[in-house]
Amino acid sequence: MSDAAAGTMRIGFVHTAPALTPTFEDLLAEYSWSHASDGAARADGVEAADRADRADSADSADRADAGDTAETAGSVSHGPAEALHVVDAWLLRTALATGVDARVHERVRAHVRHLAALGADAVLITCSSIGETVSSAADEVSIPVLRVDAAMAEQARDLASAGVYHRIAALATFTSTLGPTQRLLEAVAGAGIEVTADVVAGAADAKAAGDAAGHDAAILAAAQRVATRADVIVIAQASMAAAVAGADLTVPALTSPRGGVQAVLAAARRVHPTLIHS
Fold it and tell me: Which domain holds residue 119?
């Protein structure tokens, strides 16, 4: 059971890279405090550092650094909400090598069950490459389980629907991410909206070689290219966000962490609407 009766909301996160942990902690702090300040408490909202646009999940290096064993951090309190983290680099490494197979699904289910047992009120899967494990994981628990890019997909649909081309352009650096992201976008967009999806050539190799500037330059060039024929760009991985942060693009370039945190907090509040900060 969660600590809802005591007024403490707990949000569980399943990551595939350790570098994502502070990004989501900062966003959780920002949005949970902001919500509290708009409610009865009227406290000043905390402005967390916006690491979402600077996050570097180090999709290659961090997989090796984290090893195969999942790590669970203790709950980290940020005002009204507490973060519970599981980091498992094996998940992404396996998804890259063999796809999101039965082993990946089972491991995510185990992590979600563990977070629910720790008292999470909702869980967010923060890696788009394993986003399609959400349905089977959600069947294991009685709390909401969300994928990080779901809210971004809905925003992209709305922008494309109101746009000139009725087209969403998705970019990724890994094929393993591109497939799940494209399928999600197509399912959400529905008829009348086209979804294109491209792997940014050379970006992953540049990052693996330690060439962050080359990685970012390749992504920005790809974003500039697809912006001429789309209404919105979907950046499929958090590690790509820095490449387009502040870029002078002609269309919006969406990233997933911010919307994902807002969505998981909203889901948790629907489960426990009487929490004192809701």
Answer: 4-148+258-271
